[in-house]
Amino acid sequence: MPKRKRNNSVGANLAKADAQVEKVRHSLAHLLAAAVLEKFPKAKLGIGPAIDDGFYYDFDLPRNLTPEDLKDIEARMRNFIKEGLSFSGKKATSAVARKTFTNQPFKLDLIKDFVKEKKQLSIYKTGDVFEDLCRGGHVKNTREIDPKSFKLDRLAGAYWKGDEKNKQLQRVYGLAFKTSKELNEYIKQREEAEKRDHKVLGPQLDLFTFSDLVGPGLPLWTPMGTRMRHLLDEFVWSLRKERGYERVEIPHITKKELYETSGHWDKFQDELFHVRSREGHEFVMKPMNCPHHIQILQRKQLSYRDMPVRYANTTTCYRDEQSGELSGIARARSFTQDDAHVFCRQSQVKEEFFKIWDIVDAFYKGVGFVELEVRISGHDPKNFDAYLGTKASWQKAEKALKDIARERKARVKFVEGEAAFYGPKIDFIAFDSLGRERQVATIQLDMNMPDRFDIYCIDEKGKHERLVMIHAAIMGSIERFMSIFIEHTAGAFPVWVSPIQVQVVPVSKKHGPYAKKIVKELEHENIRVYLSDSDETLGKRIREGEQAKIPYLLIVGDKEESSDSVAVRKRGKGDIGAQKLSQFIKILNEEIYKKK
To answer: Which spans of this chain does the record mark as coiled coil (predicted)?
Structure first.
């Protein structure tokens, strides 16, 4: 498995682009619109913002654009850059704005929104060739833009304002970076990412599938994929079991009153699948597990002697994601959480956080992410209405997380506005083999849900003591983690978690009995093995095993049978020579034990 290589050049941290690059991208969006209007004078303009890797603009055009059109529009943009056009803007009244964009219905629609929301209107000009309704943020002159640092990338459809009831527009995407070198590096990185796309590799490796009859966003897991999921989940469970966790199970639907008490209903009811019984009772498919675990905790009165209580539960949750937001198994409507909740006293929080942190470190080391970045996600003080609880409780919780990270001697970054609505959290960030940031595990400190459900224990003096709740997800969504894992490894999984660890390939039919003997001995050692004894040629069967990214292929023919050995091919290294089967099993078991 490749070691984590952080890429700080391009593509890895696109959201962190500096202000000048953002200005260039925004300016290029204006030049794109100007070029389209030059080519199609009757074009109707939507919006054109800067995005993480470039820019886009939406258009209503007399015909569908083609790749050849993009080349022509790109050339026109470069001509504008050479002309040295200046950007200038000024505030405008709604009357002036409507007069300026009389023939632009989408701009007029935006002006109505600005007036309704009492926002200031402004109009920016690009030389004498273009003007747009815009808030600003451009280069002063187009000569500041490297004409080789951008490229029109692709076409897509986009409903006006993202509403499928509105007209569908043509969206033109462009890539843009500070230099042509960064642009080319990004394009190469993206090409590599496309080769690793889990939506392609997953079905190719026979891990999961989707069915039109089942529905979009509802993945179906094959025997191979299910085997991997269970191996990963059992690894997490083994780490939790060592630290005193107990397994629980919960149903998949619940009365809405549970989420009204927890606070989820007011904030997320529109994102839930609603179920109505024949008797008219209203239920929802569970989108999370924490309120259910609380109900298990509250089945009996707890003493301080019972603390802490640790529940673990791997279970499927459901959220009504919009169709356009679905992305393979990375974002789906059904997803499985390796969820856990700790109920403890305030004095026990640090120790429980450290135990979970140990689990996170052990698991991600085992799957090949050796180094994790740590972030504390806090609340947004400018939007406190979005959170449960009091400002004092949030400040106390966030201070506790900072103190825990400091004692752990971890380098952390504090990020405002990324907390869950019920409490701050420690997020762990992995960097995949392409250097992309991937948020993985999370530990959340919750002092609010215990208040809402009145969770307490009886302390040493016989009084009620409010408990603290810790939410802990190691993989989080197993589906989302699997998408990251597939792309990080390009499907070449570590031996310990590979659905098939060894493929046995007899040279011909007459070697079948010896091959079956090898298979039986490997199975006796609990090694996951596949016998490739079809009528296909030897070369084709070997290629199929390599394309399936199976860690080891064992070729057996006359020579191997006579010497009671196997010819070993190792993934990525090819032939590594003949070995006694006992020797091979010893080496393989050592790899599995060390999680290589």
So the answer is: none
